[in-house]
């Protein structure tokens, strides 16, 4: 987990900010579970064929 996210989560827990905790938790699970996009299309955004 990135340090900036840890810091924000710790701050949200200390303030007992449930909305912020949920938001940060959702962000973490979204980035952790997103598929790895390493297609040739992603590596070549202009669509130029070498």
From TrEMBL:
- Origin: domain of life: Bacteria
Q: Which InterPro entries match?
A: CmpA
Name a Pfam family for this protein.
Answer: spore_CmpA
NCBIfam families attached here? spore_CmpA
Q: Return the protein name.
A: Cortex morphogenetic protein CmpA
Q: Which organism is it from?
A: Cohnella faecalis
């Amino acid at each position: 987990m990135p340090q900036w996210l840890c810091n924000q989560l710790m701050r949200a827990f200390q303030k007992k900010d449930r909305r912020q905790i949920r938001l940060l938790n959702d962000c973490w699970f979204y980035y952790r579970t997103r598929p790895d996009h390493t297609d040739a299309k992603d590596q070549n955004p202009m669509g130029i064929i070498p």
